[in-house]
Fold:
Amino acid sequence: MYQTGFKQTTSLRSFFYFKVINMKRKSLSKKNRFEVFKRDLFTCQYCGSTPPSIVLEVDHIIPVSKDGDNSIDNLVTSCFDCNRGKSNIDLDSIPESLQDKMKKRKEAEGQIVEYNKFLKKINKRIDKALVELGQYWFNLWENGEDKYVFGASRRPSIKKFLKHLNQYDLVNYMDIAYAKRVNASEYSGWKYFCGICWNKIKEGGER
Structure:
């Protein structure tokens, strides 16, 4: 009788523990998940992978079982493999149903759509910056009144600079280059400006 009672008590404890943990865990809305994805640039924070090669998930930094909550500061973007890799369960032993596969595929497709929207916004912002920076540069040298922008040969350099430096910094470096090379050619000023940018990027990498 004692053994039976012990087993029942243990079983009840397990049941209530399971129930408490599940009561703590609240599902994340699709909107909140994508807010975390956007904050983390749609990149797995463990391995650096991005869609469409992987499916992203939201992971709790402090697990729910240890009183972790759903606040955005406790959430991080993880790929499916990295997130499951933290579990003690061998994934190979869990057969994936057709329904699960379809659900995962639908989630992956949704992430690709959102990821492409995200990239489109970034590219649109970069294109806008290219126009504004080009106009500013040629207004310095040509008094062009926004008539000129950077051509195809210079746009790749500006794009590279924008990956490491902000637009306001670039305007400042343009002013410096113009002041130093105002009596020289515009091309000389351009080379001087590029030199400033590469030095600033190098300084940032050495910190």
